[in-house]
Specification:
The complex is a heterodimer of chains A (127) and B (237).
Chain A: H1 2-19, H2 28-50, H3 56-80, H4 85-126
Chain B: H1 3-30, H2 39-76, H3 81-97, E1 102-112, H4 131-143, E2 148-151, E3 154-155, E4 162-164, E5 169-171, E6 174-176, E7 180-185, H5 188-191, H6 200-206, E8 210-221
Antiparallel strand pairs in B: 1-7, 1-8, 2-3, 2-7, 4-5, 5-6
Classes of the chains: A mainly alpha (127), B alpha+beta (237).
Amino acid sequence: MIFIAILIGCVVGALIGMNAPMISYTYSSYLAIAIIAALDSVFGGINSVINKNFDLKIFLTGFFGNAILAILLTILGQKLNVDIYLAAIVVFVGRMFLNLAIIRRYYVDKWSNMLKKDNKETSETED
Amino acid sequence: MNKKVISIVLGIMCFALTFGICVQVRTVKNSNSTVSQNYEENNLRAEVLKYKERYENKYRELEKAEDQLEKERQSSTQNNEELERREEEIKKGNKMIGLSEVTGPGVIVTLSDSKQETNSVLNPSSLLVHDADVLSVINELKNAGAEAISINEQRLVPTSSISCGGNIIDINGEKVGAPFEIKAIGLPEQLSSLTRQGGYLEFLRNDSIGAELKKSNNITIPKYTGLISYQYAKTVE
């Protein structure tokens, strides 16, 4: 159910994004950092769904808060001539890998349990 | 937590995410900036793109203001014959010095660099279209009675100059590259006499440079986008 929703969201987003008007080049660096923040939030959301502690309020505030904070940091970095957005990217991508590892472990465990059960059943029937 | 709500929220988030990615990819592709490893170079390129955008925005504002001025002028001169006559004079003058877009019959001359290999001839420079070639073609067009001329959408005005700028040429201080599409408004039959035997186009073709002339009944030549300022020339009373 959840993965079907994610798939539909991705396909519709891609289709509309292909035909949407382009933004000006000045703001493309802000959009880029917002995309990274959103990607992190989505992976975090999937992770919390798996751990069964999904909270809509926390998820939504994280989605927008992270993106806005990242954009503000990018602007501040441009004013100070320091690439602060690199720090945001490091944090977001690091968390993305962490969440991805948890998701992967969950599904690998589930899959191997299923295999074990199958093997047991087949061995029982053989006996 | 309701599973339906979770999936809807995640779906919407993914929609926003892929939408953003697509827009970003298209923006980056459109600005055709190849990402270089050099930090300095990237910064300079981004700066140039930003300034270009700002310039275009300002120019659009200027055009809007000019439209408004035109409207104001029209409404204020509506009921005054003397002013209307002056208005006509201004329009005529603008047409002559290239400050208004003009359309009419004429020819399109296209000059493009030769497609021959550079090592197949003694002098590779003879395979390129130079500023002098463009100047000569312009001269012949004027001689044949062209009333308005543009090169790659750069309008020629009384203060225009054509000069060599390396592998491009400078027209009105703007950089213009080959192939050169020279549009001229005038009597097409007269202007097409450029293709005559011994004419300059024939001379260019002998050097295997592509020189095409096409008649057209509907040519639009843009207006001059720069500023014509007269500081020293005073009218004699």
